[in-house]
C-alpha cells in the first residue's frame, strides 16, 4: 500500500516526508519535482514569505542512480525562514512572548483547547499551509510513476473573489496550458486575469483577502481505480477528502455535481459509447467517477477556497484568558488561489497513484506495467 507521513513546522528547520510502498525502478527527475515546488510558490497575491523561501527537495533515501529502490523514500525541504525564527522555535528554551490571541478562521483556538496549549504558536506552526510544500513534493514523486502510463494532471483558476474566467479551456491542450502557466493568476482569459489582479490589489489596499475556485483535470486514467465495495475505497471519497484537507478549502465538486442537482436525470446522465475499442461516455457530467470507480473519462474536480483568514482589517476574537480582543496580524498572503491549483494537482496525483498501485500491484515498475497491459488488453472490445 502506498502511504506517507509528513512532519515539520512552518518556521521550523524543515519539512519532511517518508513515502512507503513506492515501487522500484521508477525513474525520478528531481528537477521536475522542484519545478512543481516552484509553481506552488508563484502566483499573484502571495505575501513576503514567498520571497524568502526557495523550495527544493533534498533526497535522504529511497532513490539511487536516478531510480527508486523500493525502500522508503525520504525527502526534506528546508525552511530558509528558520534562520529568522531560531530563537522563537528553540526546542529547549521556552520563548517568553506567548501567543494568546487566536485568529478566527484558523486552527488556533480549537488546537489550543484540544491540546491544552498555552502558546498558540504551537498550533499554527503545524496547521499552517506551509505543509502543502511537502505534500506537493510527495505528489510530484507520485506523478513520476503516473507519467509512465501517460497520466496528465492539470489545473487552472476559475475564479478569484467574484471575478470569473468564463472561457472554455482544453486543459489537455499544451498550447492552452502554456497560456495558463504563464498567467500570474493561472487563468486562461487575459481580461479575467487583469480583473483578478486588480481585485487582489484592491483587497490588499483595503487590508482584505480573497478566496476562489480552481478546476483540476486528470487525463488518461484507466477505468477501474477505486471501488464501490467499501466507502473508504471509493475514488470520490478519497479525492474529495484529500482536497478538502488542503488548508482553506471549504467545498469540492466532482464533475458537474452542482449543476446536475438542478436537472432532470436523463439530461445529465453520461451515455455509454464505444470508441476505438474502448468504453467511453459521450459527456462527462460524472467527472470520470461512477460508483466510486474511475470510468476512463477525465477526472474533473473543482475546489473552492475561502478567503485567507488573516486580514489587516481587525475583527473580534477572545483570548485564552477569556478577554475580548481584536484579531492579530503578523504578515499574510492576500490570495493563494493560484497556488491552490498546483497543490490540488499534486494531491490528486498521490491519490491516483495510490489507487493505481492497488489495481496494478507490483514491487517494480516492470511488474506493474505487465499487470496494466494485461488489464487494458482484457477490457478492450474489438
Ligand atoms: C497556499 C496557501 C497559502 C496560505 N496562506 C495563508 C496566509 O498567508 N495567511 C493565512 O491566514 N492563511 C493562509 N492560508 C489559509 C490557512 O492556512 C487556512 O485558512 C487555515 O489553515 C484554516 O483552514 P482550514 O479550516 O481549511 O484548515 C493559506 C492556504 C494555502 C493553501
Ligand atoms: C509558508 C507558506 O505559506 C504560509 C501559509 C500561512 C498559513 O497560515 O497557512 C501563512 C503564511 O506564512 P507566514 O506566517 O510565515 O507568513 C504563508 O506564507 C507556503 O505556502 O510555503
TrEMBL record:
GO biological process: amino acid biosynthetic process; aromatic amino acid family biosynthetic process; chorismate biosynthetic process
Gene3D superfamilies attached to this UniProt entry: Chorismate synthase AroC
Enzyme Commission number(s) from the entry: 4.2.3.5
Cofactor: how and how many bound: Reduced FMN (FMNH(2)).
InterPro entries: Chorismate_synth, Chorismate_synth_AroC_sf, Chorismate_synthase_CS
Binding site for NADP(+): 40, 46
Record keywords: Amino-acid biosynthesis, Aromatic amino acid biosynthesis, FAD, Flavoprotein, FMN, Lyase, NADP
Co-factor requirement: FMNH2
Known role: This reaction introduces a second double bond into the aromatic ring system.
Entry's family note: Belongs to the chorismate synthase family.
Protein name, per record: Chorismate synthase
Pathway terms, separated by semicolons: Metabolic intermediate biosynthesis; chorismate biosynthesis; chorismate from D-erythrose 4-phosphate and phosphoenolpyruvate: step 7/7
Catalytic activity: 5-O-(1-carboxyvinyl)-3-phosphoshikimate = chorismate + phosphate
Highest taxon of source: Bacteria
Amino acid at each position: 500500500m502506498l502511504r506517507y507521513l509528513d512532519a515539520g513546522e512552518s518556521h521550523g528547520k524543515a519539512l519532511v516526508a517518508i513515502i512507503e510502498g513506492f515501487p522500484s525502478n521508477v525513474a525520478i527527475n528531481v528537477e521536475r519535482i522542484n519545478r512543481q515546488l516552484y509553481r506552488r510558490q508563484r502566483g499573484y497575491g502571495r505575501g513576503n514569505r514567498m520571497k524568502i523561501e526557495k523550495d527544493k527537495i533534498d533526497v535522504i533515501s529511497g532513490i539511487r542512480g536516478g531510480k527508486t529502490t523500493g525502500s522508503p523514500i525520504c525527502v526534506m525541504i528546508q525552511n530558509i525562514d528558520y534562520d529568522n525564527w531560531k530563537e522563537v522555535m528553540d526546542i529547549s528554551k521556552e520563548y517568553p512572548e506567548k501567543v494568546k490571541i487566536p485568529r478566527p478562521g484558523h486552527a488556533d483556538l480549537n488546537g489550543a483547547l484540544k491540546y491544552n496549549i498555552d502558546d498558540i504558536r504551537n498550533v499554527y506552526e503545524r496547521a499552517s499551509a506551509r505543509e502543502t510544500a511537502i505534500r506537493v513534493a510527495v505528489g510530484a514523486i507520485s506523478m513520476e510513476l503516473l507519467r509512465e502510463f501517460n497520466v496528465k494532471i492539470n489545473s487552472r483558476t476559475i475564479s478569484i473573489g467574484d471575478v470569473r474566467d468564463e472561457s472554455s479551456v482544453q486543459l489537455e491542450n499544451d498550447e492552452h496550458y502554456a497560456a495558463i502557466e504563464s498567467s500570474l493568476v493561472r487563468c486562461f482569459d487575459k481580461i479575467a486575469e487583469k480583473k483578478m489582479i486588480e481585485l487582489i490589489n484592491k483587497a490588499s489596499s483595503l487590508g482584505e483577502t480573497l478566496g476562489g475556485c480552481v478546476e483540476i483535470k486528470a487525463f488518461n486514467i484507466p477505468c477501474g481505480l477505486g471501488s464501490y465495495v467499501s466507502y473508504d475505497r471509493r475514488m470520490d471519497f478519497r479525492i474529495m477528502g484529500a482536497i478538502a484537507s488542503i488548508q482553506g478549502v471549504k467545498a469540492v465538486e466532482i464533475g458537474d455535481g452542482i449543476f446536475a442537482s438542478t436537472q432532470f436525470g436523463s439530461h445529465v446522465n453520461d451515455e455509454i459509447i464505444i470508441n476505438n475499442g474502448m468504453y467511453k461516455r459521450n459527456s462527462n457530467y460524472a467527472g470520470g467517477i461512477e460508483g466510486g470507480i474511475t470510468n476512463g473519462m477525465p477526472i474533473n474536480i473543482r475546489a473552492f477556497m475561502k478567503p485567507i483568514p488573516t486580514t489587516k482589517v481587525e475583527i473580534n476574537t477572545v483570548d485564552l484568558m477569556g478577554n475580548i480582543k481584536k484579531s492579530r496580524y503578523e504578515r499574510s498572503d492576500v490570495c493563494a488561489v493560484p497556488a491552490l491549483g498546483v497543490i490540488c494537482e499534486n494531491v490528486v496525483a498521490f491519490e491516483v497513484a495510490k489507487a493505481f498501485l492497488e489495481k496494478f500491484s507490483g514491487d517494480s515498475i516492470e511488474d506493474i506495467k505487465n499487470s496494466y497491459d494485461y488489464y487494458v488488453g482484457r477490457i478492450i472490445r474489438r
